[in-house]
Design a protein that fits this description.
With about 90 residues, the protein is an alpha+beta fold. The chain contains two helices and four strands. It has a domain of about 55 residues. The chain is elongated and about 85 Å long.
Amino acid sequence: MRSLLIIPVVLALSMADGHAQTAEPPATPAPQPPAAEPSIHGYADRDKTCTVWTDKCRSCDRADDDTVHCSNIGIACQPAEITCTARRSEPAK
């Protein structure tokens, strides 16, 4: 007989717990993703005056016709921040 009294109590508690889990949490602003770093291949679009750049693993250069050529990455290389190593000289005005 005691077990018959426990069943409604257990059911009531489980239903109350289920309602607590479905309650809306307080609204928090979504974290902003960090600004995407440029890829080694897209760096040419970001810095038009740079003719040679590197991430210490690969190097890229821009030809006179604006085509970009990049080397392959080494097997154990850890890329660093992309830096420009040569710039196009500005035409004299």
